[in-house]
Amino acid sequence: MKRSSLSIIISLFLISMSITGCINSENTSKKVYSKDLSSPLKEHYVVTSKYSGFSESDSDIYSNRWVSEIYNLFNWEIPEKNKLQGYYNNVNRKSLLTKAMDTEDNTIRDYIKFNSNLGVNYSKDEKDDLVDMLYKYTVKDDYLIRIETKKYLDIPVEGDEYKSFETKIISNLNNTENIMEKIDYYYVLMLLDKEHPLLKRKVIKNLTINIQNRSLTPVDINRLYKEKKLKEQFDIKFTPYFSQKDLQDVITRYTQLNSEMSIQTLYNLLYISKSIINKDELDSLHKFFDGTKLENGWTRPDQILNVYSTYQGLVVAVRKNEFKNINSDKVNTYLEKSLNNIKNKNIYQYNDYLKIKYILQSFILTKNNEGISNVKEIISKSLKTVQNKKITKNNVGEAIVLIELADILDINKSVVTEEFINQTQKNIVSDTSNLLIQYYNLSKLSRYSKFSINSEKLSKFQNKDGTFSEPGLLDSEATRLAIEIYGNIDKTVPKNKQLIDYYMARDKKLKEKNDLSLLGQNYEILNLLQKE
Signal peptide position in this chain (predicted)? Predict the structure, then answer.
């Protein structure tokens, strides 16, 4: 059965595993593997000097490569290097790289350089396999990626394809007077052959980029990096044309997760300015990267914390009686900042209301009454705004979440107009692609609407083991929907004991998988089932 867009939206709302609410952190970001927390809480718990919460991000090859380059640049010890080596030795390399190549053209090159930074060596057969993948997953004229990758593998760069590439570079070099372009071309020649006859000290010495009196762009930083690498070949002094204060500002913004600069550009900047970085900036960077390391490496800074993972982490911590070992004050500070980020928007969209829902549920768990009041203020204003619009299939999802939030917050029923409820109900009833989703949405209106749900019809979706099924839905999704429907209409789920046993058994399996998000969802369901 084909699922409508509305069904998909509401379904994702129920089983969402990736709704993020990332915010700025500060330069002493610290990931703590707390002895006071059990798995999987301790692997996902993040504490900074100001914020606390949970992360669900996975490391990625690109971040691992460039963060490890920074560690090597400053001779820092890569944390848990042996563990990282073991992980990347045991993982299915072909599967990992093939999947990653879908989003990153440089994946194989970065993978090889990262492992090189970890001290991993390859056999001849392994090198051959990697080169085969390199040619398979890079386009024909991606010469730079291929050249650099072969260099990292200590494989000679030779053959007709590189000879023709070299000829093209020399031709371009002879036909330009632009300093920037000349640096690009000479840098490529250096990659091809450090002893290339066109690389002469006098020529390279005169290649100087003038960036005074203007802001640095990523392109500038990349070119300056190449200029420095070329001058290092001939032991020529390189002078960065920016101040210590400019560098400090860049590092501060980056470690506060308030920068759009890529990790590769940051590395290039650090490389060209190594001589002028002071100890405080270095210590700040070191703490930041040590603190934001995940189990298998690093991820993009904007993925370190999010409100959904923080909520699931709190659910698990409360259920396991470990909430006392979490810094709830810092969690609340993080949640309040996340809420303010949403509040400052001119228009709220569906995902914003989802984030607000997770923030509200987290405030309830942390007993943050002020935070709950702030959410109530936002939702009361939003209800007035949304109720002035016609409810259609395009915005009914927002209406349903708002009604649910109003119910959780116990907002006066008089604030919610009859016309708003009728329009929302009309749109829900018109979508019959999945009856369980329709029943779920209608159950959210039960406080305001006389529309009744036939529990006998609902029980027909239940299996012998207590779980629920409907075509077009995963069984776990259907079961979650049914349990919530029964709760919303104040009825006990049939075969309640069997379902509790089922999710208790599932709990043991999820603990072994170390999956915080799924474990949190499992505990939510058990909490609903055991309310009675």
Answer: 1-21
